[in-house]
Design a protein that fits this description.
The chain is an alpha+beta fold and 296 residues long. The protein has 2 domains: 4-236, 3-Layer(bab) Sandwich (Hsp33 domain), CATH 3.55.30.10; 242-295, HSP33 redox switch-like (CBS domain Like, Alpha-Beta Complex). The protein is 36% helix and 29% strand. The protein has 10 helices and 13 strands. The strands form 3 sheets. A 6-stranded mixed sheet has the order 7-6-3-4-5-11. Helix 1 (23-33) crosses helix 2. The longest helix is centred in the N-terminal third of the chain and has 18 residues, at 37-54. It is elongated, with a radius of gyration of 21 Å. It binds zinc ion.
């Protein structure tokens, strides 16, 4: 199955479900940054939730940025997403190696840290971008985002995110968000809680080649789902360019740029999202310096 996002309604429209498979996306990120298994799991979970959130953005110019600043050894993780969704990001310590946790699983919580913050910045063309900040609950990411949705968006949700990694790379990755509408009954919510428990891990279900429809049925306990939209346009891709890097150089300030020109006579810049290298000659740097002067 190709990476995709599917939306459904359950319990006669009283429960909204978004299911996603991100296996190829997370594998691409793993290869780009040469991520360790625990970094793949942590960053893959973040990419998966970001893809589901970005899937709701409508305009080509909309942009979502999520930063997780935990106190753990993995350091900061950043993901930015544009409509369709197209995602990119980076991890401060991509080669982090940690022992497995008590359950024999990759210890994402310890890698991210049990304390810290999630920052969500949504730029949807309004005068000011929306900024949401929420403390980390467990560092396991799904739990942290359930808390974020409750606190920042007043939405009660069940969030699951999972990445299965073996020696060759990402075996499966994906997740789901279940959101009860205001008219959902306590009985229905209890049924869903039991269904989620019975269904087990999302990465396992994907690894067993279950379709997103089958997964949505399992995690809601409802066999009569109404399918809504499907999106197969998920990509992990950097959109950097020499112009973009030049803007970055221009923003460091005239003085510093002058120092680089005088001392180095050239500059080599590496994109932190994709590791592509950009070379700037002395002449190019001087031009950037001139633009900088005009701007100020
Ligand atoms: Zn790049």
């Amino acid at each position: 199955m190709k990476d995709q996002i599917k939306k459904f309604l359950a319990y006669q429209g009283k429960i909204a479900v978004t299911c996603i498979q991100t296996t190829e996306l997370v594998e691409e990120a793993r290869k780009t940054h040469d991520l360790s298994p625990v970094a793949t799991a942590a960053f893959g979970r973040l990419l998966t939730i970001a893809a589901m959130m970005a899937n709701d953005m409508k305009s080509e110019t909309d942009k979502l940025t999520i930063q997780i600043k935990g106190t753990g050894p993995l350091g900061m993780m950043v993901v930015t997403a544009k409509a369709r969704p197209t995602l990119k990001g980076y991890v401060a310590n991509p080669q982090l190696d940690l022992p497995l946790n008590d359950m024999g699983k990759l210890d994402v919580g310890a890698a991210v840290g049990r304390e810290g913050y999630i920052n969500v910045i949504k730029d949807i063309g309004l005068k000011d971008p929306y900024i949401g900040i929420c403390p980390i609950v467990s560092g396991e990411i799904a739990e942290d985002f359930a808390e974020y949705f409750a606190k920042s968006e007043q939405k009660n949700t069940a969030v699951a995110l999972g990445v299965l990694v073996d020696a060759k790379g990402v075996k499966s990755a994906g997740g789901y968000i279940i959101t009860p509408m205001p008219d959902a009954t306590n009985d229905e919510i209890t049924q869903i809680e039991q269904a989620i428990f019975k269904a087990g891990a999302i990465s396992k279900m994907l690894d067993q080649n279950l379709s997103l429809l089958e997964i949505a049925k399992k995690v809601t306990g409802d066999d009569n789902l109404t399918p809504l939209d499907t999106n197969t346009n998920l990509t992990y891709q950097c959109d950097c360019s020499k112009e973009y890097m030049a803007q970055g150089l221009a923003s460091i300030g005239k003085q510093e740029l002058q120092t680089i020109i005088e001392e180095d006579g050239e500059a080599e810049l590496t994109c932190q999202f994709c590791h592509k290298q950009y070379h700037f000659t002395k002449q190019e740097l001087s031009q950037i310096g001139c633009l900088n002067k005009v701007d100020k």
